[in-house]
């Protein structure tokens, strides 16, 4: 064994609870000791627009944010936030069910109801809490949650926090889902949890078929549309709108931290008893509500997204051009055709992925480096997410950067 | 199906996942001896579920650490 063994043994002997992280610490140190810039320690000193920032001192094109519709610097959105700061102060200092519901929270929920054309909307402090709260609360002891194995961490954590039986199925596999639904004991209540767009590879779920099957087995259906809101579907309601099954979805979960351009989460539903969630859902009750400026920016942004069809069209053009361009350059991508605003470039391994990430950063391009355990099948990905505010010229510039960086690192 | 018949079936199912050819006894653990990661667990569990037409939820999987416990769990579920 090497010299580190006695140190580890000493840690264990002293009862250091951090010893379980030793392997991860080691992997990280090995990677950084090669002189590479730390992919998880990037600082944006200045943000110039939805698509450009000064990162680690360099003027950088942002291609790894979730700012799909580029709303963060929208004049109406920003001024609504400023006005709310002036009129309602910096924060609510309270729970939604006590002193933390202001006029702005109600207006934000009204905007969501209108956006989705649904009866009920509930705003959470983050998208993570929306999944955590709804899933753990509605699926109780003896109930079943049937979910895709590639579900987001917030969905898994919602499952872990509740007491239901958890049954995963292979990613986007309609048959695997149906088999599991068939085997659930008669009389048990079931929640099927799906996502419109899966964020790691940017692939879309076959919701039409899956929701039909789930409903035919008497299950309730929750769809997380975090990565499709504002962009996919005629009115930007997401994949469930695009595939014509939005009326069969019992719950839609979403976030304000992507297309909406601020922070927060929500659930919309037509369930007649939905409002009881406000009293029984602990991640909703036991936390402070969103600041007035945040709900004001969210409400303004949501209302503008309803009329964003031109932006949606341009974002599709960007996604198609980047996807096609990267294929032509010889990169391996997560999907064979563009399905969303996410284009995932598959790296041979973590080391080359980190080298490529750094080479791109030096070119002046920021993308997300995604690695296990966040990724499916232990893949290392450079995840590109496009914005409606990226110009066509910027997409060409990005392709040039990928070509140079890919050749330098030896991936293409 | 009795315990030895279930044992036989699961032994056949585990083979493609047992890449290092680890000897399978009742005390063989999935995490340590067989080094199954989460994706392997999912595929292996799916194979067993399909073979016996049962459902093994993640809550139940958490109680199953070794091969013998798996055979016992499947035997019990078959009886239900």
Description of the structure:
The complex is a heterodimer of chains A (412) and B (80). Chain A is of the alpha/beta class. Chain A has helices at 4-13, 22-33, 75-88, 103-116, 127-138, 153-161, 174-183, 207-216, 239-242, 277-280, 282-285, 292-305, 309-329, 350-363, 392-409, and strands at residues 44-49, 52-55, 58-62, 120-124, 144-148, 165-169, 190-195, 197-198, 203-204, 220-224, 251-255, 265-269, 342-347, 365-366, 368-370, 380-385. In chain A, the strands form four sheets. Chain A has a seven-stranded mixed sheet, sandwiched between helices. A four-stranded mixed sheet of chain A has the order 1-2-3-14. A three-stranded antiparallel sheet of chain A has the order 13-16-15. Chain A is globular. Mean pLDDT of chain A is 95; it is low at 1-7. With 80 residues, chain B is an all-alpha fold. Chain B has helices spanning 3-14, 38-52, 58-61, 67-79. The mean pLDDT of chain B is 94. Classes of the chains: A alpha/beta (412), B mainly alpha (80). The interface between A and B is medium-sized, with 17 and 14 residues.
Set down the secondary structure blueprint.
The complex is a heterodimer of chains A (412) and B (80).
Chain A: H1 4-13, H2 22-33, E1 44-49, E2 52-55, E3 58-62, H3 75-88, H4 103-116, E4 120-124, H5 127-138, E5 144-148, H6 153-161, E6 165-169, H7 174-183, E7 190-195, E8 197-198, E9 203-204, H8 207-216, E10 220-224, H9 239-242, E11 251-255, E12 265-269, H10 277-280, H11 282-285, H12 292-305, H13 309-329, E13 342-347, H14 350-363, E14 365-366, E15 368-370, E16 380-385, H15 392-409
Parallel strand pairs in A: 3-14, 5-6, 5-7, 7-10, 10-11
Antiparallel strand pairs in A: 1-2, 2-3, 4-12, 8-9, 11-12, 13-16, 15-16
Chain B: H1 3-14, H2 38-52, H3 58-61, H4 67-79
Helix pairs in contact in B: 1-2, 1-4
